[in-house]
Amino acid sequence: FYEHCARLPIQVRRVRIQHPGRPTALTMRQQTEVERASIRRGERDAAIIAVLLYTGLQVADCARLNSTDVFITGHTGHLRQRSPNGKTSIVQLPEPALDRVVAWGRVRKSGPGPLWLGQRGRLTVSGITQVVLAVGNAAGIDGLRPQWLRHTYTARFHRNTASGR
């Protein structure tokens, strides 16, 4: 039976199944709405969304940022990303994120300490996730998570790399 079936010209197409609950990238329209909603919510929230959306940082790395991890010179900016295992890397801040971080820096005032401050001090991963959820709700995207912003960054990176930009 199996030998007979092996000789039959059967073509099988691979079916892609979207897994429920799996993070997806935002469309350009959704990204625009998220950015607008974050600006309406204030400088801090706009800066958090911009950093997650334009650097691809994980939410835990974003929560660990200190004001001394931001380097701005002229029209360029960088973030020093510190991982829990002690590794450090430098991440470029694209112009939209740079503008938002500079605006947040003016409101936050200079000085050492956590970059993202809430009512009780440093924003935690949970606090940043709550900011992203609130911005998503304001933009009409229920259940928006920081991982979606990371996926959006990755999708944009691959799209721009593939098109040669």
UniProtKB/TrEMBL annotation:
The keyword Signal does not apply. InterPro entries: DNA_brk_join_enz, Integrase-like_cat_sf, Integrase_catalytic. Transmembrane segments: none annotated. It holds the Pfam family Phage_integrase. Keywords: DNA recombination. One of its GO terms (biological process) is DNA integration. Residues 21-165 form the Tyr recombinase domain. GO terms for molecular function: DNA binding. It comes from the Bacteria. This is Tyr recombinase domain-containing protein. It comes from Saccharothrix algeriensis.
